[in-house]
Amino acid sequence: MIRFYAPDIETSGTLPESDSAHCARVLRMHSGDEIEVVDGRGHLLRCRILDAHPKHTSVEVLSRADLPKVWPGSITIAIAPTKHNDRMEWLIEKLVEIGIDRFVPLRCRYSERKEINVERLNKIAVSAMKQSLKAILPVIEQMTPFAEFMRSCTTGQRFIAYCDPSIPRRLMATEYIPASDTIILIGPEGDFSPEEISTALDAGWKPISLGDNRLRTETAALVAADTCHILNQRLL
Which stretch of DSSP H or E encloses residue 183? Predict the structure, then answer.
């Protein structure tokens, strides 16, 4: 069954314009057809189309079911965006498919990119959420300065991944505690500055390695998120 996204479907009874156009114009669905709708907050609703309009398709909610995430604890990826937008867009798609709770673009000293289009990333996240049959949409934050993010993080297990071999690090797979709220810092292509690393370590962040391979920024974020899931699956 085709799945749509409507964050306020239970109060408005209407699909947003983008999903309405896909429903009425692309898929050519009609009154009486049934569809699945997710609200991004963990609810899956079975609906019947009342009026298939390309701008505001109205529906009747037939049933509502909870569709919780399948991993314990929360996973936050905080990363300095790459110079090329397409690599961050690819990363958001894959992170949502794998499963994260929060994505924070970081502005670091050596950041290649100082601004990011959050609206565009949210659209990609919505598409990935529907494609991977999830009902919870991860939070995508605005670009956040490194120092500000440091001040906001005081709980949970916190990891910083970097490339400086002069500072001892341990494999994330040996440090991660399954089913825990987790934040993982991934630096820019030029890595974190020595001052940023020192700030994080002084604040109690654990220095980690993601293995012996040299990884691109977006690959490192994906490996970190997947490591959490692999270790969490051992609890099942």
Answer: strand 182-186
Residue 136 gets which letter from DSSP?
B
Structure letter (DSSP) for residue 153: -
What was the pLDDT predicted at 154?
Answer: 84
How far is residue 223's CA from residue 228's CA, in Å, rounded to a whole number? 9
H or E stretch at 224: helix 217-233
> What does the pLDDT look like over 167-186, one tens digit per residue?
778 899 999 999 999 999 99
Region at 13 (left for phi over 0; alpha for psi -120 to 50; beta for the rest):
left
Write out pLDDT tens, residues 63-96: 999 999 999 999 999 999 988 889 999 999 999 9
d(CA 191, CA 182): 21
Residues 140 and 125: beta-carbon distance below 8 Å: yes
